[in-house]
Write a structure and sequence with these properties.
With 291 residues, this protein is of the alpha/beta class. The protein folds into 2 domains: 220 residues, Spore Coat Polysaccharide Biosynthesis Protein SpsA, Chain A, CATH 3.90.550; 68 residues. Helix content is 54%, strand content 13%. A 7-stranded mixed sheet has the order 3-2-1-4-7-5-8, with helices on both faces. It is elongated and about 85 Å long.
Length: 291
């Protein structure tokens, strides 16, 4: 089965659906609040269409896709974008490792050996930089962490529940999959950007959204690392600066107000961050023990 999240893609959705139907028994389109004829075109072409009343974001579209797939006990699901950058004829290539049982998740990679893309230089640099951050957090060696052309088996569909609403969902799913020990492989694909309208996919917004998602993931999974360590550093800075301020007061009889303010601010900030880290760590530990 193929699934396509879409928002205002009436100029490309038909070509993607027709191509996908040649390689998948069913095509599910999640219309994420389109104001154009995306949903109508999809329905006329025989796709199963689920509509969001308004635009919630790619992550929410994926949540709807995964919920539907679990409810209907889909054995293998492949996702691809609606803007035409992913080539439907490569669906069998992306699905193969999942169908064969050699992987739980198969990622169509622009950066794998023999993979190719018309991606601009600045977009390529940005995508690889984001990938580096995601790899360092997840511990996964996946090169193309932002690819939305993926296949999932039933085990992965049951294990992964997206929580991100925006563009960070691809990275979130990868980080969750790595945490759960799912087997992930990459297969080379070709991606077409030339001639496509990518104005609705601002690279800067995409990068900020993905990085924010990654930071949120770390803050929840490793609160003492994310909050506790900076908190201890802040407390240490406050103590050192405070001692220097009192040394100056002892030597000259005048207290340095600027140094004192910085010392107090650093110390209080450190205490706040450390407290947040401890509270989150305690709550997460309790929730994990109960689950």
């Amino acid at each position: 089965m193929a699934a396509i999240p879409a928002c205002n893609e009436e100029t490309t959705i038909a070509k993607v659906i027709v191509g996908a139907l040649r390689h998948a028994d069913k095509v599910l389109v999640v219309d994420d609040g389109s104001s154009d004829a995306t949903a109508e075109i999809a329905e006329k072409l025989g796709a199963i269409v689920l509509k969001h009343e308004r635009n919630f974001g790619k992550g929410e579209a994926f949540r709807t896709i995964f919920d539907w797939a679990r409810k209907h006990r889909v054995r293998a699901l492949v996702t691809l974008d609606a803007d035409g950058q992913h080539l439907p004829q490569e669906i069998p290539t992306v699905l193969a490792p999942v169908i064969e049982g050699s992987a739980d998740i198969s990622i169509g990679s622009r950066f794998a050996k023999r993979g190719s893309s018309e991606m601009s230089r600045h977009r390529r640099i940005g995508t690889k930089a984001i990938g580096g951050v995601v790899r360092s957090i997840s511990g996964s060696p996946v090169k193309d962490t932002e690819s939305g052309f993926r296949a999932y088996n039933r085990k992965a569909l049951e294990a992964l529940i997206p929580s991100e609403m925006g563009m960070g969902v691809d990275s979130e799913l990868l980080m969750r999959a790595s945490e759960k020990g799912l087997v992930i492989v990459e297969v080379p694909i070709r991606v077409a950007y030339e001639g496509l309208d990518t104005s609705t996919h601002n690279p800067l917004y995409h990068a900020v959204d993905v990085l924010a998602s990654a930071m949120k993931y770390v803050s929840i999974r490793h609160p003492m690392l994310f909050y506790g360590v900076p908190g201890l550093i802040g407390i240490a800075i406050g103590v050192v600066l405070g001692m220097q301020a009192f040394e100056i007061f002892s030597a000259y009889g005048a207290f340095p107000p600027n140094l004192g303010i910085i010392a107090v601010a650093a110390g209080l900030t450190g205490i706040l961050l450390l407290s947040i880290g401890i509270i989150l760590f305690t709550l997460i530990t309790v929730l994990r023990e109960r689950s």
